[in-house]
Amino acid sequence: MMRLLLAVVGMATMAAAFSSFTPRASFGVATTSSMSMKIFDWKRRTADESALNDVENTEFTFDNLKSAPGSRQRKKRKGRGIAAGQGATCGFGMRGQKARSGRPTRAGFEGGQQPLYRRLPKFVGRPMGPGHSKTVYNTIKLDELNSAEAGSTVNFEGLFENGATTKSKYGIHKVVVGREAFTAKDITVQAHAFTKSARAAIEANGGKCEMLKATTGEVLTV
């Protein structure tokens, strides 16, 4: 009976002690909290930035701009004990080529395979590759101009409409010498480029060569 009485008294004492630390809900009474949020960066926790937070009345200049809290972190110190998290092997592992002191491989090394700076010069038509700066023209042969009448102006569009040439893959055209003889006389040929022999043949028959601008197609005046 004595043990039961002692147990009841002990439980009552514990309940009273617990109730003193437990907040009780109060109905109809407004509660106020003294908790305040703090920014992450500990160096700026005590700084008074109320003026900067007032965007409407603050003029931002180069001397009052600051980075966001937590965006700038300290440099990680390695090899200063295991408690720092980057001690001992400093995050490089136990063994291997990349775990050795100094730079294990030179810049651009790819383990023995052909590196990128040696593959780029071999890509045809790509920057640094053969022919990457070469201009590719659609060729117009002189024998395709034989059907042109004297005194007319000939260009690729007119030849294509008349069926004298086929459609072009490229937008710029170059006049070259064909296999057959050039018989057209007194014509004006418009193209983006001429070979020396093609220009000489046109001018020998009393014709004229006009260069076109590659971007707009306008006739260039010499």
- Cα-to-Cα separation, first versus last residue: 126 Å
State the strand order across the main sheet: 1-3-5
The arrangement of helices and strands along the chain is: HHHEEHEEEHE
Tell me the β content.
Answer: 5-15%
Q: For the CA atoms, what is the radius of gyration?
A: 43 Å
3D architecture notes:
The termini are far apart. The protein is built from 5 helices and 6 strands, in the order H-H-H-E-E-H-E-E-E-H-E. Strands 1-3-5 form a 3-stranded parallel sheet. The chain is of the alpha/beta class.
In terms of topology, how is this protein built?
Blueprint: H1 2-21, H2 50-53, H3 116-119, E1 138-141, E2 153-154, H4 156-162, E3 173-176, E4 188-191, E5 193-194, H5 196-204, E6 208-211
Parallel strand pairs: 1-3, 2-4, 3-5, 4-6
Tell me briefly what this model is.
This protein has 222 residues and is of the alpha/beta class. The chain has helices at 2-21, 50-53, 116-119, 156-162, 196-204; strands at residues 138-141, 153-154, 173-176, 188-191, 193-194, 208-211. It is built from 5 helices and 6 strands; from the N terminus they run αααββαβββαβ.
